[in-house]
Amino acid sequence: MINKIDFAAKNLTSNAGLFLLFETAKANGIFELIDTDLVFDNESTNKIKMNHIKAMLCGHFIGIDKLERLKLLQGDPLITEFDISVKEPETISRFLGNFSYKATQMLREINFKVFKKLLYKSKLTSITVDIDSCVINVEGHQEGAAKGYNPKKPGNLCYNIQFAFCDELKAYITGL
Fold it and tell me: Other C-beta atoms within 10 Å of 169: how many?
C-alpha cells in the first residue's frame, strides 16, 4: 500500500528521485525519440501523448501499480515544475486504449534505439544477456493463453512472458 505524505512547505516533494529520472531521460534524448517516433493515427492523441507518458513514467518510477494512484502525483511541485498535468485515471486509460499493435511496435523500436545509444556510450566490448520470464494468470478463454508453468495457480491458463536484459547496463532489451 502506498501512503501519501503531505508536506506543508511549498517546494518540498516526496518524489525527489524523479528529478534524476527526467534529467537522465533528457540527456539521452528519450523524450525527443518518443515525440518524433511514436505517431498515432489520431492527431488529438499525438498532442497529449507526452504528458500522459511522462505521468505514467513518474508513477511507475515511484511504485504506483494502479492508474487510480496516479492522483498521488497531482499537485506535486516537482511534477508541476516539469510541466506535467496528471489527469484523471479514466483519461489516461482512454489514452492507453489508443495503443494499437503498430504503436506498441513503435515503442519497441524507441526502446531499442535507447538501448543501442546506452550501449555505445558505455563502450562495452561484450555484454551478458539475462533472460527472465513472468507468469500472468488469466481467467476465461483469453487469446494466446495456454497451460504451462504457473507456480501460483498450477493448471490455470496463463501468459508466460519472456524478457531480455543487459546485465552490465541493467537495461531492458526486449520481450516476447
Answer: 16
Residue 135 identity (one-letter amino acid): V
Enter the C-alpha cell of residue 170.
Answer: 541493467
**Cell numbers 555505445 label which residue?**
120
Spell out the alpha helix ranges (H) of the chain.
17-27, 30-37, 43-61, 77-81, 89-96, 101-122
Alpha carbon distance 17, 78 (integer Å): 10
- Bin 75: left if φ > 0, else alpha if -120 < ψ < 50, else beta: left
Longest dimension (CA), the chain: 53
For the segment 113-126, what is each residue's pLDDT rounded down to a tens digit? 999 999 999 999 99
Residues 6+ apart with CB under 8 A from 5: 14
What pLDDT digit, counting tens, does each position of 50-64 carry?
999 999 988 888 888
Q: What is the pLDDT of residues 131-148, one digit of tens each?
A: 998 888 888 888 888 888
Is a pLDDT exceeding 70 seen at residue 110?
A: yes
**Cβ–Cβ < 8 Å for 11, 81:** no
Q: Are 59 and 70 in contact (CB under 8 A)?
A: yes
Placement of cell 515503442 in the chain: 107
- C-alpha 54/C-alpha 31 separation (Å) is 9
Kindly give, in sequence order, each residue whose CB lies less than 8 Å from that of residue 109, ignoring residues fewer than 6 positions away.
37
